[in-house]
Amino acid sequence: MSGAGRGNPAADPADRSTGNWLKFVIPSALGAALFLLPVPGAETWTIPFGVMIDWLNANFAALLRWTLVAVTVTSGLLTLWYSYGPGTPRTPLMIQYFRTGPVWVLLRCLGAVFTVLYTTGAGPEWITSGATGGTVVGSLMVNLLALFALASFGLPLLSDYGFMEFVGALLSRAFRVLFQLPGRSAIDGLASWLGAAPLGVMLTVQQYDKGVYTTREAATVATTFSIVSIPFCYVIASLVGLADVFFAFYGCVFAIGFVCALILPRIPPLTWLPTDYKPGTSNHVDDTVHEGESLVQAGTRLGLARARTAPNFPDFIKSGFENLVFMWFSLVPATVAIAMMALVTVEYTPVFQWLSMPFVPILEWAGVDEARAAAPSLVVGFADMYLPALIGKSIESQETRFLVAILSVSQLIYMSEVGAILLRANLGLNIGHLAMIFVIRTIIATPLAIILAKYVVF
Fold first, then answer.
1. Whether the Cβ atoms of residue 333 and residue 76 lie closer than 8 Å to each other
2. For the residues of 98-118, what is the DSSP string, one character each?
3. Which residue of 66, 227, 249, 287 lies most exposed, with the fewest beta carbons within 10 A?
4. Nearest CA to 429 among 254, 204, 146?
5. Which InterPro entries match (predicted)?
């Protein structure tokens, strides 16, 4: 018997049309195949998205390098022009992309300067060194350009056409039982897993503003399930030379994330937050699954409803292009600046060595090879998620590189992006809370990653 036959609210007839079914199934299947389907790679199994990234990097490396120069310089100049110069943005997108505050203006300009000085070889040794500029500009950011180009058009297949809603409904009851969260949180968590962590945080904030989550629930979803997406995980794995064990790597990421999600909602600082809804809101009903409706029926209803409002092909292309422009011109230059400054600090100052000294004997006691080289990765990830992997890519021990890559993904709270969004979101979280969550996740993830590396993966 159908859900509607048991008294559930009837689905909109337009949702059940053949055209809408095709709009739901075909893009979702393509997205699932692109990011989740195992395919044979050069040495082992990988995903189609990874094959495409590797092909672009292998065949268009020079073009990508000079594209990076063009992107960072253009971003810096336009941001200066529209933020402090006489330029007047003519569209909302121009305002969103190129009119920003002084910190981001500075980061984008620094990103452009670092990129030009490294690429032309005109900069000092601390910029052109393989350990700094070679790692950030010559390797990481070139990979990210290719990743952003493909992800801008690939990820909406999973997030915009109903796949996310369908799977989220299937997981909704498990989220309530295991993580003490409303069923809707499964969908918001998947938005991060299948899209990007900032997207998941922003969706969570929107739900909080509508009265779907309490303050504690919203903070829990944002800090526990806004995990690094599949494409970014592939870049991290490739960066540290673990692309050949990507499925094992991502399985361990999932397992560690699951354990963290079981523990964090039940301990401070999340339990310190109030269980009140945002003042002025009244929509406190979790209607992910209607009464008398099976999880599959709920997922199908939500997926079809999402597909009906999803973009058609021209809008899909337009949206993908806008996503690409945002990621290239907003995120890439700032990431160059943050990563370069962090690596210069690591390579030319003892700051991170001092901060990581207490962890060296712990890692040595746990039998971690090259513990002194790996220790900074336990603390540097609070600045940006790429930094542990950038520091650890030169470590010889495969098991230790695996540990570093796991930490890059599992620590989750990084101030260059997710942390900054959380602090602006008015969810009751301050910098101290975020630091505590970062430390707790590190404490949980480190021994689990060591055990998995030694006894499961290698």
1. yes
2. H---HHHHHHHHHHHHHHHHH
3. 66
4. 204
5. Gate_dom (IPR011642)
In whole angstroms, what separates CA 19 from the centre of its chain? Answer: 32
If you search the block for the tokens 């570093």, which residue do you land on? 404
pTM value is 0.78
The residue count for the chain: 458
Residue for token pair 């919203």: 218
At 45, is the secondary structure helix, strand, or coil?
A: strand
Q: Cβ(230)–Cβ(194) under 8 Å?
A: yes
Lookup: tokens for 44:
């082992």
Residue-level pLDDT, tens digit, the chain, 458 residues: 334 333 444 556 667 889 999 999 999 999 889 887 888 766 667 788 888 888 888 899 899 999 999 999 999 999 999 888 887 777 777 777 888 889 889 999 999 999 999 999 998 999 999 889 998 998 888 888 888 888 889 888 988 899 988 988 898 888 888 988 888 788 777 766 665 666 677 778 877 887 888 999 999 988 888 667 777 788 888 889 898 888 889 899 989 999 999 999 999 999 999 999 988 887 676 778 888 899 999 999 999 999 999 999 999 999 889 888 888 998 899 889 988 998 899 889 989 889 899 999 999 999 999 999 999 989 988 888 888 988 888 899 999 999 999 999 898 888 767 787 788 778 889 999 999 999 999 999 999 999 998 888 77
**The CA-based dihedral angle spanning residues 304, 190, 143, 149, taken in that order and rounded to the nearest 10 degrees:** 20
Cα(290)–Cα(292) distance, rounded to whole angstroms? 6
What is the residue type of 147? L
